[in-house]
Amino acid sequence: MTNKTIKKVTVIGAGFVGSTTAYTLMLSGLISEIVLIDRNADKSEGEVMDLNHGMPFVRPVKIYSGDYSDCAGSDIVVITAGAGQKPGETRIDLVNKNTAIFKQIVGDVVKYNKDCILLIVTNPVDILTYVTYKISGFPSNKVIGSGTVLDTARFRYLLGDHIGVDTRNVHAYIVGEHGDTEVPTWSLTNIAGIPMDDYCKSCHHCDEGMTRNGIYQSVKNAAYEIINRKGATYYAVALAVRRIVEAIVRDENSILTVSSLLNGHYGMSDVCLSIPTIVNSNGIERILDVPMDEKEMELLKKSGDSLKEIIKTLDI
User: Fold this and answer.
1) 34 closest CA partner among 48, 54, 45
2) Which CATH number applies to 149-312: 3.90.550.10, 3.90.110.10, 3.10.450.50, 3.40.50.1000?
3) For residue range 83-115, what is the model confidence (pLDDT) as tens digits?
4) Which superfamily does 8-145 belong to?
5) Catalytic residue positions?
6) What is the pTM of this model?
C-alpha cells in the first residue's frame, strides 16, 4: 500500500453525468477539491453554486468552476463530456462525433497535467478509452474507462432482485464492451460461493434458461430503456464513477470491471475492454485472467474484434 493522498479531482463535462458525478464525489467525503469544467461556463458555474449551497451538510470540500488550466495538480481527471446518446442511437453511433471532441479535450488536459489518472466515462467508453490512451501518450495503467462497472451492477441488482438476495451478496461480472456485445459470465456467477447452476437447482423460482436470457437482455438494454423514458442515464453511472474513484483514492486493490488496454489477455491486444481488474492508487494494477468457459471466451473475443474493426476506421 502507498501513502499517496488524493486531493483533487477534475470533472470535465457539466451535463447530467458530470454534474451528478461531482455530486456523488461531494457526498463521498473522499476528495478535498473538485473542479467542474464545461465549454458552457454558465452551466458549470450554476452547478457549482447549487453544490456549494449544500456544503453545510457534508465534509469540507472546495468545489469550483474552472478551465483546462485547473487540471494542473489534479490526481484524477474524469471525462464525461461529449455528444449524448439519443433515443434510437447506439453507443457506437456516437464514435466519430466523440472521437473528434476527445482530440481537443485530451490535448487540452495534457497541456497542464501529465501525471494524473484519466478516467473516461463518455460513450462509447471502450473506444474513447483507447482513443485517450493513444492521444495522451500516458502509460496504459493511467487510462481507465468506466467500462462495465455499471453493467455489472445492473446484473447483480437484477439477479439479487429475482432470487430475493441482497445484491451485495451476488457475485457476478459483465465483461467485454460496455454495449451491445457485452458478455455475462454465468460460469463465474455465484451466491455466497454457491455456483449459479447449483443455486438454480434448489431455487425453483423460474425456468432457468428463459430467465437468464431475460436478465441479460435487461442488463444490455437498460440504457436504451431509461433513455426512452427520461432522456438520459446518470444516477447509477455517477455512483459507478464514485466507486472507481474510491478504489483509486483509498488504494484499495479492489476488483472492478473497468475498461483498459489489453496486452495479450485472452489472446487480445491493442483494444480496450472490461475484464475484472485490480484497481488502486496506481490506476490499473493488474488485469485478471478469470477462468471463463469456452463460450464466454468466444463471445469476449467477438466483442473485442467488433471494437477493433471500428478503431481501424478512426483518425487517431
Assistant:
1) 48
2) 3.90.110.10
3) 766 777 665 677 888 898 999 999 999 999 999
4) NAD(P)-binding Rossmann-like Domain (3.40.50.720)
5) 178
6) 0.92
